[in-house]
């Protein structure tokens, strides 16, 4: 049987943490996978050195996941096409705003029997609306794409603290293969027949986490945050089931649903930056670069992208939390209005 060869497209905070897991798993399951993994790095200079050189020399992503070794069967590569050459599995894990450019570069260069999985939390926004990222990848590259999303704050997983995740599959064989690629004793994988439900929960919880950070900035307390979590989950479910078909109710109770909303509302970057937004009155763009050292905020951009659809469809009253978060982030609405405008 031909072994699977894995290529990772992305090497940020999550990309680096999940690559550590895959690098151990491909060695453990050497009957199924080739030992070496190539990881595409968006090249940049760190301390006067190329980041790819630093990763390959120190076996550590010193910028995006400092302090955690990346096994030596991973090679960082700055050239996207070279990274995917010969790969039979593509793992997409770039911030959502960059995926289209990646797909454009890969178009026509990927064989149709390659399997892909997207770990990206976001939508692709265009004039015609919001497309799931898995659909964009699938349409550009003409391949099957699964999704993986869950309550997965990257540094906690790098510390090997117990957590769960969810894989959404269309083809059960792909779901089972990806489970072997990602699962460890401390990182438990559930698989469900709902690619889009899994990935869109991940996209929308980022917006709810922005709301939770605003609540923290306002010093509103845990009851208020719990209300944001509850209302947020309901708006997520309504939004996804209004605009996409075949979404399962059970998906919202998997790690990708309720669990990810909770962890992101307590420990995520969107929460952190939204709290600082309320306290400092600086813009999200300024705070992103001040606080995240190159990591990317996804929730504010997604809030803007989904608001275009809510507004176009005249659904502001159906999605008061999403609408109010957007208005506070972009329209100068006072953060105090968060709880006033959603009841
Ligand atoms: N960090 C986390 O705890 C988790 C993140 N995710 C999701 O994973 C996806 C990727 O996030 P992270 O790996 O955390 O990335 P990150 O937030 O650390 O983003 C920085 C990455 O973007 C790259 N980058 C910068 N400009 C670029 C460009 N023009 N083109 C391509 N790449 C560029 C950087 O080189 C770096 O690798 C996101 O959708 C995020 O929501 C999912 C679960 C956990
Ligand atoms: O997706 C995440 C946890 O599951 C990370 O969320 P943040 O991007 O808000 O850090």
The number of E-state strands comes to: 12
Instruction: Count the domains.
Output: 2
What is the CATH superfamily label of the largest domain?
NAD(P)-binding Rossmann-like Domain
Question: Helical percent range?
Answer: 40-55%
Any idea what the radius of gyration is?
19 Å
Query: Biggest sheet, strands in spatial order?
Result: 5-2-1-6-7-10-11-12
- β-sheet strand percentage: 5-15%
Quickly count the helices. Answer: 15
Instruction: Name the structural class.
Output: alpha/beta
CATH classification, class level of the largest domain:
Alpha Beta
- Low-confidence segments, ≥5 residues, pLDDT <50? none
What small ligands are held by the chains? 1,4-dihydronicotinamide adenine dinucleotide, 1,3-dihydroxyacetonephosphate
Task: Report the mean per-residue pLDDT as an integer.
Answer: 97
């Amino acid at each position: 049987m031909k072994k699977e060869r894995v290529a990772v497209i992305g090497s940020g905070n999550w990309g680096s943490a999940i690559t550590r897991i895959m690098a151990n798993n491909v060695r453990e399951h050497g009957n199924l996978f080739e030992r070496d993994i190539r990881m595409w790095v968006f090249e940049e200079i760190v301390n006067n050195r190329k980041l790819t050189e630093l990763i390959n020399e120190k076996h550590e992503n010193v910028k995006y996941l400092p302090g955690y070794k990346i096994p030596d069967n991973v090679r960082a590569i700055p050239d996207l096409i070279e990274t995917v050459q010969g790969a039979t599995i593509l793992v997409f894990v770039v911030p959502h705003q960059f995926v289209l450019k990646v797909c454009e570069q890969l178009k026509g260069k990927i064989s149709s029997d390659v399997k892909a999985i997207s770990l990206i939390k976001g939508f692709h926004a265009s004039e015609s609306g919001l497309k799931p990222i898995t659909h964009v990848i699938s349409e550009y590259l003409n391949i099957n794409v699964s999704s993986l999303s869950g309550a997965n704050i990257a540094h906690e997983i790098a510390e090997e603290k117990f957590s769960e995740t969810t894989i959404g599959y269309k083809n059960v064989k792909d779901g089972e293969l990806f489970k072997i690629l990602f699962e460890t004793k401390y990182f438990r994988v559930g698989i469900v027949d709902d690619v889009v439900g899994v990935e869109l929960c991940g996209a929308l919880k980022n917006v709810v986490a922005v709301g939770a950070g605003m609540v923290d900035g306002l010093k509103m307390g845990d009851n208020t945050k719990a209300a944001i979590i509850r209302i947020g989950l309901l708006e997520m479910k309504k939004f996804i089931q209004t605009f996409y078909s075949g979404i399962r109710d059970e998906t919202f109770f998997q790690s990708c649903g309720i669990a990810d909303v909770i962890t992101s509302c307590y420990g995520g970057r969107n929460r952190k930056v939204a709290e600082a937004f309320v306290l400092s009155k600086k813009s999200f763009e300024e705070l992103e670069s001040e606080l995240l050292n190159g990591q990317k905020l996804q929730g504010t951009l997604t809030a803007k992208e989904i608001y275009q659809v809510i507004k176009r469809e005249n659904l502001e009253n159906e999605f008061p939390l999403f609408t109010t978060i957007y208005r506070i982030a972009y329209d100068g609405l006072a953060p105090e209005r968060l709880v006033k405008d959603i009841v």
